[in-house]
Design goal:
Layout (H helix, E strand, L loop, with lengths): L4 E8 L3 E9 L5 E10 L3 E2 L2 E2 L2 H19 L1 E2 L2 E6 L5 E10 L5 E2 L2 H12 L7 E13 L2 E4 L6 E2 L1 E12 H13 L3 E7 H9 L2 H6 L1 E6 L4 E7 L2 E8 L3 H12 L3 H11 L25 H23 L2 H5 L5 E4 L8 H9 L3 E3 L18 H18 L10 H5 L4 E2 L11
Parallel strand pairs: 1-7, 7-14, 15-18, 18-19
Antiparallel strand pairs: 1-2, 2-3, 4-5, 6-20, 8-13, 9-12, 10-11, 10-13, 15-16, 16-17
Helix pairs in contact: 1-3, 4-11, 6-7, 6-8, 8-10
């Protein structure tokens, strides 16, 4: 193993906590060092509703990660999710001067600062500011205003805000588990960073992450996020429907979904659903499984489509839909998604070219990989003397946080 800088990240998922150690290797690429996962406890809708069980679950996850990676961990980056997140569109105007002059980077920084100063609920905090569109002297559609002559700069920005109390609860749970919170990122942005290319986001793409208890979505155009949201339905609802329909235990329903799940009736022989309402337990067949699961999966996609609502923008997404998450693994999910959205759909679960990805067991690692990429990007920016953004100088805090245990002298990461 090399001696590059180590990054630890944890995805607080609705049903599973997933942690990952990556290393920035000599080539500047991320390489997987170790992983861990534990069933989520004390965690609901993006918040720790039971601090005791939640902090113990964090501690178990990190201890498993230490054992798997052979390192000592005292802090990590993490994701933010849940219904407390809200998106708003902000407009910021910056006068350039009494006369036209070339627009500078400092003018963009001022526009972002003004966007952050917009009025939001007192109990919320701005988590992300993404420029969507620029205008110079009322000329809209400017891609990069730096260097352009003008007297006034206007920026449209997409803001994501989150509850201050929820953010405090996340930090409190991590600290109660005796670890340091090193920075946070909105989960759908982290997932997008891992799975979407710059070309995807430039052409226009919708990312749909079907999780255990909720489905998150985001739309990107011209390289920036323009909308995002969440619907409170996910893979757990598919499991529950199978359990009720086939009259089997939750554990058996999970196994049936994973091994034989199909959500498109046209892929199987047609069967009558009348057997679902008879007194005797119905016989499990592929056609009956599809008849049970298709309505729920179609409902999830329809909710996402209506939650976004802008059908004109949706029709113009050149890269279509990227589908991910554990709830999207059933056979026929991609085809059903194409039917609902009338767009080409791809399923992606891991980024291309991630060194060591073959060490990861089958699971949904995209969000925690995106968190690692986010932290690594800010680390590189700091080393180059650039603005590290909202991670609050994560590289500075990473120094000395992680140590390898394979050396008696345990060299500090990055030393």
């Amino acid at each position: 193993m090399g001696q590059g800088r180590l990054i630890v990240a944890c995805d607080f998922g609705t049903t599973t906590f997933r942690a990952l150690v990556t290393e920035i290797n000599e080539d500047g690429d991320l390489e997987v060092v170790g992983f861990a996962r534990e069933p989520a406890e004390g965690f609901q809708d993006g918040d720790f509703i039971d601090l005791g069980s939640g902090s113990r679950c964090i501690a178990r996850t990190m201890r498993a990660l230490e054992a798997n990676s052979d390192i000592y961990v005292s802090g990590f980056t993490y994701n933010i999710s849940g219904s407390h997140l809200h998106s708003v569109r902000a407009t910021a105007q910056v006068p350039i001067g009494p006369g036209p002059r070339p627009i500078r980077e400092s003018d963009l920084d001022e526009a972002k600062r003004r966007a952050r100063s917009m009025s939001i609920p007192f109990d919320h905090k701005i988590l992300a500011v993404t420029p969507v569109e620029f205008a110079v002297d009322r000329v809209r559609g400017v891609v990069d205003p730096v260097g352009r002559m003008g007297s006034q700069l206007e920026m449209q920005a997409h803001l994501i805000t989150g509850s201050r109390s929820v953010l405090h609860n996340l930090e409190n749970a991590i600290e109660t588990a005796k670890y340091k919170p090193l920075g946070e990122e909105v989960d759908v942005l982290a997932t997008g960073r891992a799975l979407l290319s710059e070309q995807d986001m430039e052409k226009g793409v919708m990312l749909i992450d079907v999780g255990g208890l909720a489905t998150h979505w985001a739309v990107f155009r011209k390289g920036a996020i323009v909308a995002d949201g969440r619907v409170p339905l996910g893979g757990e609802q598919l499991t529950n429907d199978l359990g009720h329909g086939l009259r089997i235990s939750p554990e058996t329903a999970v196994r049936v979904k994973h091994e034989r799940g199909v959500v498109l009736r046209s892929l199987e022989d047609e069967v009558s659903t009348d057997v679902l309402f008879e007194e005797t337990r119905p016989e499990e067949t592929p056609g009956l499984i599809a008849a049970i699961l298709e309505p729920r999966m179609e409902e999830i996609f329809t909710y996402v489509k209506n939650d976004f609502g802008d059908m004109r923008t949706l029709a113009g997404l050149g890269a279509g839909v990227v589908l991910t998450g554990g709830g999207s693994l059933c056979r026929g999910t991609r085809q059903l998604c194409e039917e609902v959205f009338d767009l080409p759909v791809q399923r992606r679960h891991l980024p291309d070219g991630l060194v060591g990805a073959d060490r990861l067991p089958p699971d949904q690692w995209a969000t925690v990989i995106g968190l690692s990429m986010w932290a690594a990007g800010d680390a590189e920016a700091l080393e180059e003397g650039q603005d590290a953004g909202p991670s609050l100088n994560i590289l500075h805090r990473l120094k000395g946080i992680f140590r390898r245990n394979d050396d008696d002298d345990a060299m500090a990461a990055g030393a």
